[in-house]
Amino acid sequence: MNPNDETSPTMDASALYLEEVFTDQSVGTIRRMTPVDAEGKPDTERPVIYLGQAQMMTPAGSLPLSFEIPAENLADACTAFAEEAQKAMEKTIEELKEMRRQAASSIVVPGEGGGMGGMGGGGGKIQL
């Protein structure tokens, strides 16, 4: 990758965070994202962000959940963890249901894509 290429990923020194991880080793993880400047010193102009991580068990296995926790400090983040994890789980379930509905409503159109049964590279599906 050419470092002078405009599409090269570059770190934004004005958007850096120090990441700290807290866990109870059973329910989940809280990440405290403390904004810092390019020298690693705290940047008090930006808020600290708390991110929760947990797992939801499904018939296909565990599904990771990530969610922001609105909190002023780590104690508040711990208190709000369960409620925010529940919201993330409900949102994920709704997204999975919508994906299932979309997959069920796709129609295979004969003759699309050239060849028998849609074989030959075209696909032949119309999303409703």
Structure, explained:
This protein is an alpha+beta fold and 128 residues long. The chain is flat. The strands form 2 sheets. It has a 4-stranded antiparallel sheet. It has a two-stranded antiparallel ribbon with strand order 5-6. The chain starts with 15 loop residues before the first strand and ends with a strand. Strand 3 and strand 4 form a beta hairpin. It has one domain. Helix content is 24%, strand content 30%.
Question: What does this entry show, briefly?
Answer:
24% of the residues lie in helices and 30% in strands. The protein is α+β, with helices and mostly antiparallel strands.
- Report the end-to-end length measured between terminal Cα atoms: 40 Å
**Portion in helices:** 10-25%
Question: Strand sequence of the main sheet, in spatial order?
Answer: 1-2-3-4
Q: Catalogue the unreliable spans.
A: 117-121
Q: Measured on Cα atoms, how large is the radius of gyration?
A: 22 Å
What is the arithmetic mean of pLDDT? 86
* Element order: H for helix, E for strand: EEEEHEE
Largest sheet: 4 strands, antiparallel
- Strand count: 6
